[in-house]
Amino acid sequence: MTKIFDASEEFASTALAGFCQIYPSHVRLVSNGVVRATTVPKGKVSVVVGGGSGHYPAFAGYVGPGLADAAVAGDVFASPSTAAIARVCRHADNGGGIVVGFGNYAGDVLNFGVAAERLRAEGIDVRIVAVTDDVASAPAETHALRRGIAGDLIVFKIAGAAAEAGLPLDEVERIARLANDRTVSFGVAFAGCTLPGAKEPLFTVPKGRMALGLGIHGEPGINEQDVATATDLAALLTGKLLAERPEGCDRVAAVLNGLGSTKYEELFVLWTAVQEKLKAAGLDLVDPQAGEFVTSLDMQGCSLTLTWLDDELERYWSAPCDAPAFRMGRTIPADLRTDTVVDEEVTPTIPVASEASRKVARCISELFVDIAAMLKKEEAELGRIDAVAGDGDHGQGMRRGSDAAARAISAAVEAGAGAQTALALAGDAWADRAGGTSGAIWGLLLRSWSNALTDVDAPDDKAIADGARLALDGVTHLGRARLGDKTLVDALVPFVEALSGEATAGRPLARAWKTAAGAAQDAAKATSVLTPRLGRARPLAERSIGHPDAGAVSLAMVAAVVSDFIGRSR
Residue 148 in contact with residue 130, Cβ under 8 Å? Predict the structure, then answer.
């Protein structure tokens, strides 16, 4: 259990601050992340990595010469927000473009993707590499659907070395993708992990058993078996990975990774058996590593990662690097930066708005107070639903996001914002505070919806219905979810179709919204029979059957609150 903290909600940010105090010659603290403390040549490609906290040394421990230029940190097991990613990338930009790397999780894909779009619009060339090494999460023929676990280290190390060597952006991206395509991992757990402030672990493993194919965000394994000897465990781990050995490959990078509560001595014992299996398979081991590289708080367990090397990948895997938690080869000479980090929050611009639109903004502000109150009340229930096949943080994220949105709208209204600006700022605040998948989705949903409103006129019923359609389009375009994937979209589609249909038929907004909210509620319940095809629940599809999707349920809850509010207001 994670025991040392003051306030659980400040665990990640406080840990990051302490890390920077310990390693001032390597990193400098910025909001939601760290940047390299040493100078780099102008025009060098920047490698920015990131994800949720709770995985140290991933990701801040990888920042330094020969590896990453910056790392973005979300809350524990939650993707960093779009705003946080964009902010850290701007700090890290050296003028040569940016390669961003992260594990292939829905929230990270969404937030890094939206941030990349924003940065490209600002003139910064950003390339995205999502690490997909976990063989337990998808078969070889759908490698791109796999989640990222300890393969992060090797992919980021190779990308960082290519950037340090002065290669152009296209080449750094190509090499990073090649490394990812040739990297595979498999892990086991003997005990689950416990979030700061939580009383119980996210999952438990029966005594004498081990979970196979676990995730690094507290997701349970896909199967269980009796605890094995080191020799048998090595055979299990190597067997899973050797099954995907490319023809003709005889060199491999190997990383034996502890997940947080496994002793280094245990890893060393296991390594002797792993090395024996790999050598018996005719493989030459190139700079093998054993230790903690991508952890899961206090989870007890380990994973094995192999990267099938060619001459190019071997050169960059073995190249020198000097990061707080990972060093290879000779020291890379680098001077400390002497400039001051300017990390101020940008105050949003509030356009001039009409009184009619400001009145609507005030109504929206009152509505979000109700939404935030409801989601605070339902936090535990939404967390319980999410924990069936996820990490149980959905309720927490929805509570944080809605509270931040309510405060952002209130501040915007005080500054004279109209309806469009107020709702857009609510979306940004929700995404930034909630983080993770749900934060990114609700940020997109609200900002997209705001495009149907204006700061000049009060919206009519058609504009509100049109906004729902824009919200759906925004979520499906960047979120990639479709009807039947067992996500929020399964409730959002029926909601939008019902609202649009009622509006087209000329029904009053109160009646139209009530009908749409009912459709969302029915659809959310119906997700119980669906098999998840996206997100962290996908590898645990069987556990999810019989339980509704937390994102669909929370959307239906919000729709019901809005329905009640409209009914009282009209």
Answer: yes
Structure tokens at 93: 């930009």
Task: Enumerate the active-site residues.
Answer: 217
Single-letter amino acid code for the residue at 312: E
d(CA 150, CA 155) in angstroms, rounded, equals: 9
Spatial strand order of the sheet with 33-36 comes to 27-30, 33-36, 70-76, 46-53, 98-103, 126-131
Average pLDDT, the chain: 93
| pLDDT tens figures, 359-385 | 999 999 999 999 999 999 999 999 889
Q: Facing residues of 209 across strands?
A: 226
| Confidence (pLDDT) at 570 | 66
Distance CA 120, CA 127 (A): 10
Measured CA to CA, the distance from residue 441 to residue 27 in angstroms comes to: 31
Buried b or exposed e, range 88-119, using 16+ CB within 10 angstroms: bbbbbbbebbbbbbbbbbbbbbbbbbbbbebb
Which pair of structure tokens corresponds to residue 268? Answer: 């060393």
Which residue in the block uniquely carries the two structure tokens 């109160």?
510
- Distance from C-alpha of 154 to C-alpha of 136, rounded to nearest angstrom: 18
Place of tokens 């004498």: 208
Domains of the chain as residue ranges with CATH = 8-328 (3.40.50.10440), 355-569 (1.25.40.340)
Classify 144 as helix, strand or coil: helix
Residue 256: both structure tokens together: 């034996």
- Please compute the mean of the pLDDT values over residues 387-410 and round it to a whole number: 88
> Which token pair is 503?
């509006």
CA dist list (Å): 240 to 235, 243, 246, 251:
8, 6, 14, 17
Closest CA to 511 of 461, 463, 453, 466: 461
Query: Which token pair is 125?
Result: 């060339």
Q: How confident is the model at residue 478 (pLDDT cuts 50, 70, 90)?
A: confident
List pLDDT tens digits, range 27-82: 999 999 999 999 999 999 999 999 999 999 999 999 999 999 999 999 888 889 88
For residue 538, which of 262, 306, 215 has the smallest C-alpha distance?
215
